[in-house]
Design goal:
single chain; 4-stranded antiparallel sheet; mainly beta; Tachylectin-2, Chain A
């Protein structure tokens, strides 16, 4: 399966002094009307781009502060935004909201950000920080190497995509009831919510490296498109070379429907999909694991 490069994710201004004016470690993608929203796992901001435009994007700050420039220190302290999802209209958010989630893999990575939207899909108001530590506690009981990489809302549930690795190759979709989650969001801190179901997936491997979830998006019929990569690492912290990548579909019944490998080992970490008859039009973003390199936006098509 081939991808077509559309653009690099360059910005009108750098995130902070000493950083380059681009998103480098894109890790989640949501399309709302003509807006493309991108989170990066090494930033405190949300990237905002326009579909079909080559104009530089801009940033919306999610958390206060400045991350260290040194790679090791930055990795230790970053919030590690790995998932971005669109929440339905509720409460103070009549036009819905974006929710950015940290991976939960370290104590610094158990925060989220709630971003309100207006009727046109633009950011509205100031983002709110959300403490996820209590919410993630029951998930850590099931997955000591917790690493949430994707999130989608479907069928009255929040589906969280747990990413495996070489040491623990368990990929899973964790389902939590959405109404209590939304109620707790209004308080800014979410207590423990016991999952209603956990479905495990074996996505295969290449050269001994398992394919593991990196993001997902829900379709109108409740099926979920996911992306996965085979990254040569045996833990939730260290990066490694990417040996392969794939795109697949999980049905709303929790069963794997298909898995298509990409023709090159792109490190794809964000995906969005729109239905056009029997075809899915996909957008994907990459993580280059290098602050010097801009992340890229790609397009692809596949059968539903």
């Amino acid at each position: 399966m081939a991808l077509t490069k559309l653009r690099e994710l360059d910005l009108s201004a750098a995130p902070s002094a000493g950083r380059h004016p681009h998103v480098s470690a894109a890790s989640g993608l949501v399309r709302v009307h003509s807006f493309l929203y991108v989170v990066a796992d090494d930033e405190l901001h949300l990237g905002v781009f326009r579909e079909g435009s080559a104009a530089p994007g801009h940033l919306v700050r999610l958390f206060d502060g400045v991350l260290p420039d040194a790679k090791a220190a930055r990795k230790k302290h970053k919030p590690d935004f790995e998932a971005l999802t669109l929440l339905p209209a509720y409460g103070d958010y009549p036009h819905g909201a974006l929710l950015a989630l940290g991976s939960g893999s370290t104590r610094h990575r158990k925060r989220g950000a709630l971003i309100g939207l207006d009727a046109q899909g633009a950011v509205h108001g100031h983002p709110r920080a959300v403490d996820l530590s209590d919410f993630l506690a029951p998930l850590e009981d099931a997955f000591p190497a917790l690493n949430i990489e994707g999130a989608v809302v479907s069928g009255g549930a929040l589906h969280l995509f747990q990413r495996g690795n070489k040491r623990d190759a368990r990929n899973a979709i964790i389902r939590c009831s959405l109404p209590p989650f939304l109620d707790a969001l209004a308080c800014g801190r979410i207590g423990p919510i016991i999952p209603s179901a956990i479905d495990h997936f074996d996505l295969g491997q290449i050269d001994g490296i398992p394919f593991c979830f990196t993001d997902a998006v829900v379709l109108p019929n409740g099926n979920m498109v996911f992306i996965a990569i085979a990254e040569d690492t045996d833990n939730t912290y260290d990066d490694g070379p990417c040996a392969g990548a794939a795109i697949g579909i999980v049905g709303n019944d929790g069963k794997l429907r298909c898995l298509n490998r990409l023709d090159r080992p792109y490190k794809v970490e964000g995906v969005d999909a729109r239905v056009d008859g029997d075809v899915l039009n996909l957008l994907l973003v990459t993580d280059g694991d290098d602050a010097e390199r801009a992340a890229c936006l790609f397009a692809a098509t596949m059968e539903r």
